[in-house]
Specification:
Rossmann fold, GMP Synthetase, Chain A, domain 3, six-stranded mixed beta sheet, 12 helices, 31% helix, elongated, nucleotide-binding
Length: 469
């Protein structure tokens, strides 16, 4: 599939065009210059034409080790990978010296360039459209990414660079459907399709506070500087999905922006980044909560963990920078004790210690991700569940309500991802929360479901003597 890179100076509308081509609001868009920092990929489409589209950071004239210079190097890599580059200018602002410098830089490379004069809706962009001829890339395409004007002209311009029969590939943000199980199926256990196949890669999101090493971890897996890293906190703003393969299994690694306490978030862009991270958690199957091993489980870490559990995603706790910890055994003991006290709703959550910088225990984290994903997809037959329920009731009967014993009629698994069970009982609304916790803990221990979120819904059983309406 052909690769199309969107390039230009900051704040000319690159992310708006990216969203227009992929048909979704994936990239963060704001009037603040320099919002985009990492390369973002998606499947673009214009009518029947399909291609891979790259959103890039705005070109900055910086060549040192600053953040702007590292962003520029990321943009240069995108241009080298692309089959064609779309150079955007702001037609309303006209051609600027930075536009001219970037155009000259592109001319030195081998990547073909198409010039788009963005924000050409109305008459305000006409002078800038005429100025664009001075860049030496032929006829500029009048365009409006905001309103979708000029797509037919862009289609015609891209046609020579796009193969006639592009291969179909999945979108980096594709939503995997929920696996629902028919409640009438009471026979054999049904396992969900295994993750890691070309049709269904494991969706693995890395979340945590700023500057704990999320981007460094993904770069270490990929073996290249695919994502921006550095000593500055909060470099990542967009959630970036990267397809990768580990031991023959496909994985979609999702890097996310660091999450701070809401009270400390005041800038609009950071609020958008936090919302994008929460959206990435929604799309993920397994979420790795990355901690700084020297600042284990702060209040914000626990808040993030609870959000992941509330969304029903499989959770792994990973303590990064483990090489810098002096007393490793004591630190690990404190971490496990804190988890037992603060995350009582998720007993047995996996804990992995690692060093992204040194490359230690990275395979162990992936092995744990596939193991917990299998539990997250586990299906238990209704026959086994009801045999288990009889034993639980015999060991500890439900309490009385209004002078009558609450009867638990039967239980079945409604769906997986996460494992969700429906318990039918008389006087369902009177079953106390403590007894529900007793049943949930029994499900975890007896069926080996420790470490994944469980949901148990108590429903009112039908009264056979009640007249039908």
């Amino acid at each position: 599939m052909a690769i199309v890179a969107i390039v230009g100076r900051p704040n000319v509308g690159k992310s708006t065009l990216f969203n227009r081509l992929v048909g979704k609001r994936l990239a963060i868009v704001d009037d603040t210059p320099g919002v985009t920092r990492d390369r973002r990929e998606g499947e673009g489409r214009i009518a029947d034409m399909k291609f891979r589209v790259l959103d890039t950071a705005g070109f900055e004239d910086a060549y040192d080790d600053s953040l702007e210079a590292r962003m520029r190097r990321q943009t240069e890599r995108a241009i080298q990978e692309a089959d064609v580059a779309l150079l955007l200018i702001d037609a309303r602002a006209g051609v600027t010296p930075l536009d001219e410098k970037f155009a000259a830089l592109l001319r030195k490379g081998n990547t073909p360039v198409l010039l788009l004069a963005n924000k050409c809706e109305g008459k305000a962009g006409q002078p800038g459209l005429l100025e664009a001829y001075s860049l030496g890339y032929g006829d500029p395409i009048p365009f409006s990414a905001e309103h979708g004007e000029g797509l037919s002209e862009l289609y015609d311009a891209l046609e020579p660079f796009i193969p006639d029969d592009p291969k179909e590939i999945g979108s980096a943000e594709a939503i995997l459907p929920e696996i629902d199980i028919d409640l009438t199926d009471e026979d054999a256990e049904v396992e969900a399709p295994e993750a890691g196949t070309p049709e269904r890669p494991l969706q693995l999101a890395i979340v945590g506070r700023p500057n704990v090493g999320k981007s460094t971890l993904i770069n270490r897996y990929l073996g290249e500087d695919r994502l921006l890293t550095g000593p500055e906190a909060g470099i990542t703003r967009d959630s970036i999905a990267v397809d990768w393969e580990w031991k023959g299994k496909r994985v979609r690694l999702i890097d996310t922006a660091g999450l701070r306490k809401r009270a400390r978030v005041s800038e609009k862009v950071e609020k958008l980044s936090a919302a994008d991270t929460r959206r990435a958690v929604d799309f993920a199957e397994v979420v790795v909560l990355l901690l700084d091993a020297q600042e284990l489980l702060e209040k914000q870490d626990l808040t993030i963990a609870r959000q992941v559990i509330d969304e029903g995603r499989a959770l792994i706790i990973a303590a990064n920078k483990w090489d810098a910890v002096e007393d490793k055994q004591e630190t690990l003991t404190k971490l496990r004790e804190r988890l037992q006290i603060s995350l009582t709703q998720l007993k047995g959550v996996p804990v992995v210690t690692l060093s992204a910088k040194e490359g230690r225990n990275l395979d162990k984290l992936l092995s744990e991700a596939f193991r917990i994903h299998k539990l997250w997809n586990k299906r238990i037959s209704t026959a086994k569940l009801n045999g288990w329920l009889q034993g639980m009731v015999a060991a500890h009967a439900p309490p009385l309500s209004k002078g009558r014993r609450i009867k638990l009629r039967y239980v079945t698994q409604a769906k997986t991802r996460p494992p969700t069970f429906a318990l039918f009982a008389s006087q369902a609304e009177s079953l106390p929360e403590s007894y529900i916790r007793y049943l949930v803990n029994g499900l975890r221990e007896d069926f080996g479901l420790e470490g994944v979120p469980l949901r148990l819904h108590v429903r009112q059983g039908k009264n056979p003597y009640q007249p039908k309406r």
